[in-house]
TrEMBL record:
Catalyzes the NADPH-dependent reduction of N-acetyl-5-glutamyl phosphate to yield N-acetyl-L-glutamate 5-semialdehyde. Its main location: cytoplasm. It comes from Sphingopyxis indica. HAMAP family: ArgC_type2. It is found in: Cytoplasm. SMART domains: Semialdhyde_dh (SM00859). It catalyses: N-acetyl-L-glutamate 5-semialdehyde + phosphate + NADP(+) = N-acetyl-L-glutamyl 5-phosphate + NADPH + H(+). This is N-acetyl-gamma-glutamyl-phosphate reductase. Residues 4-105 form the Semialdehyde dehydrogenase NAD-binding domain. One of its GO terms (biological process) is L-arginine biosynthetic process. GO terms for molecular function: N-acetyl-gamma-glutamyl-phosphate reductase activity; NAD binding. Keywords: Amino-acid biosynthesis, Arginine biosynthesis, Cytoplasm, NADP, Oxidoreductase. NCBIfam families: argC_other (TIGR01851). The gene is argC. Pathway: Amino-acid biosynthesis; L-arginine biosynthesis; N(2)-acetyl-L-ornithine from L-glutamate: step 3/4.
Amino acid sequence: MTQTVFIDGAAGTTGLEIAERLAGRSEFTLLRLDEARRKEAAARREALNEADFVILCLPDDAAREAAAMIDNDRTRVIDASTAHRVAPGWVYGLPEVSGHDAVAAAMRVSNPGCYSTGFIALVAPLVRAGLLPADWPYSCNAVSGYSGGGKALIERFEADRDIAWRGYALALGHKHVPEMQARCGLAVAPLFSPAVIPAHRGMVVEVPLPLGAMPGAATPDALRAALAEYYAGSPIVGMGEAPADGEMLLRASDGGSDRLDLFVFANGDGSQARLVARLDNLGKGASGACVQNLNIMAGLPETAGLRL
Ligand SMILES: NC(=O)C1=CN([C@@H]2O[C@H](COP(=O)(O)OP(=O)(O)OC[C@H]3O[C@@H](n4cnc5c(N)ncnc54)[C@H](OP(=O)(O)O)[C@@H]3O)[C@@H](O)[C@H]2O)C=CC1
Ligand SMILES: CC(=O)N[C@@H](CCC(=O)OP(=O)(O)O)C(=O)O
């Protein structure tokens, strides 16, 4: 039987990508509001309460407002925004870390932030396994394609082709830090340095580890083996192939992918390592993850409609 899906914010960057992944899927029927009514509160309230599944692709305030408009106990929600990522009553939509069963049973799922997906996928299993300390002050450096900032940032980067690198969150209060800390069970908030590059999509998230100075930290080989084992059953997350020529490239022309590839690079004596995650901010970082969660919640194969 077909289930209905309403994407609130369907005209935005993540909403459009979700609709693309759902196109041609017979298991779901999209409820749509025309251009004139897509921001009308009454029309949205009706669609939000009619749908079996709602996917919120909205700014945080609008996502909170939309969630509060749902007054039935049947509609299930996936929120792509930051609004509910550490909120009680919401399951964190990184099934590889939160558990597939928890997502499958949830009424409310908060889709992770794109950067957080890379950081948590690398760090949470290793901290949980006791191979990295929970009380270390981790750092995280990352670059994102400009579509990560939605329509406004796309417009800005496409209007100004001279921007070669844009560092931001310079006051160190990026909105993904609370979920990174909470979902990895860290005692101290990670120091997070994001930047945007002149590519439409693509993301690299890195966690540098001075292993030789970290009490209780495992060797790079042990970290690599633990991640490989942890994700062995996943069709979406896994170890990437180490580059043979000593360099890793993101290309501006890369097409979309819903995969998440992990790497552990290290120096000769194992005293320093770099945990690296490569993903598509619009794939496993946003829209691909929403569709994966929708599949799991609907009892379907988690990779249906994904680009792997
Ligand atoms: N882009 C990415 O890589 C990622 C995005 N996200 C999150 O997903 C959410 C959506 O982001 P993104 O798609 O990039 O943003 P966009 O700005 O591209 O799209 C947001 C859409 O929401 C619409 N909108 C805004 N307010 C309302 C409202 N009150 N009622 C109905 N529609 C409204 C906008 O309308 P209009 O078209 O008129 O502006 C726009 O179409 C955000 O919370 C973002 O942080 C999460 C992970 C990654
Ligand atoms: C490049 C860029 O601007 N990226 C966005 C995060 C994209 C994302 O993950 O979005 P939400 O956490 O809002 O859902 C930012 O840093 O604010």
